[in-house]
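Figure caption, in words: inputs first, then the predicted bound structure.
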Amino acid sequence: MLKLKNISKTYSKGTIKAVDNIDLDIKSGEIFGFLGPNGAGKTTTIKMIVGLLKPDTGQVFIDNIDVWKNSLEAKAKISYVPDNPEIYDKLKGIEYLNFISDMYGVPKNVREEKMNYYSEMFNIKEALGDIIGSYSHGMKQKLVLTSALIHDPQLFILDEPMVGLDPKSAFQLKEIMRKRCDEGKTVFFSTHVLEVAEKLCDRIAIINKGKIIAMGTMEELRSHAEERESLENIFLGLTE
Ligand SMILES: Nc1ncnc2c1ncn2[C@@H]1O[C@H](COP(=O)(O)OP(=O)(O)OP(=O)(O)O)[C@@H](O)[C@H]1O
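Bound structure (adenosine-5'-triphosphate present):
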């Protein structure tokens, strides 16, 4: 469903190598966690996947479509929730949801059903008539999550999704992620919360200094880590 082939990205005229020749192959129905310390290259990788940053080298395929050659076709299959919900402060919540639904061509009856369902679940339904500028950080994040789920993407990409969510919303989001994968859809997310990755993910990749240094199921990661048991220990051992 998602394939990265030898992608690299440098910043500051090549002086900072943020992502260094990485490969990933994520299947439909997988929930895949992308872990790494601060500055490891997670956000840069995600931005290359969703078409916001052009890789210096390499290719990204979503459902066998090259993101940088057929970007509209590829983007129609995904939703992206960034780590910082910077959205149009002057719009009302409902206007933003309709705008995103229009972009994805979601029919009126379908969008209404999804908007109701997710905005009720995330407890923001009452606020949809207010302008986004009046929302808290968590409410903006929940609005972005709602908007990202309206067109029922085949690939759901989230950058640090648990940050800023209250425990109930974080629980609900984890349930949504798991359910989507059970339906054969794919979830790719970055996180610093190792317990979430450990409990939720089918597979995990650990990135450090732009390179993938470990990848596999929890079992596979454990088998390479001798007596180290928790993901926290494996992570600390690999990235120290
Ligand atoms: N716009 C930019 N200009 C220059 N350097 C950048 C830029 N964006 C990121 N970097 C650098 O690229 C490297 C990777 O950054 P990136 O944001 O991808 O890491 P990250 O794993 O998402 O980190 P964090 O967990 O702190 O969000 C870091 O060294 C960072 O300082």
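The beta strands are 2-11, 16-26, 31-35, 57-62, 65-66, 78-81, 155-159, 186-191, 203-208, 211-216.
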